[in-house]
Design goal:
It is built from 2 helices and 4 strands. By secondary structure, it is α+β, with helices and mostly antiparallel strands. It has one domain: Alpha-Beta Plaits, CATH 3.30.70.920. The chain has a 4-stranded antiparallel β-sheet with strand order 2-3-1-4, with helices on one face. Strand 2 and strand 3 form a beta hairpin.
């Protein structure tokens, strides 16, 4: 299972609707509205890199109001148990 974080810059008039549209996509497990340079962050959990490419380029980028996306693919997840407290 791969995890990717997709930062979405959106037209302000579309942000609320985009959040719901992103959450409805297969492979998207969470969507957050955020402060800073990005408007929304979608968390993808999919089986392979091809699915990341398809969801980002064919589905997310095609939604009305999406101006730009940036994608980060996670390498490793850390758990509080890893700290050894």
């Amino acid at each position: 299972m791969l995890t990717a974080f997709v930062m979405v810059d959106a037209d302000p008039a579309f942000i609320a609707g985009l959040g719901r549209a992103l959450a409805a996509l297969d492979g998207v497990t969470e969507v957050y509205s955020v402060t800073g340079d990005d408007d929304l962050i979608a968390v993808l959990r999919v089986a392979d890199h091809d699915q990341i490419a398809r969801v980002v380029t064919e589905e997310i980028a095609a939604l009305d109001g999406v101006m730009r996306t940036r994608t980060m693919i996670a390498f490793r997840q850390y758990d509080p148990a890893d700290i050894g407290f």
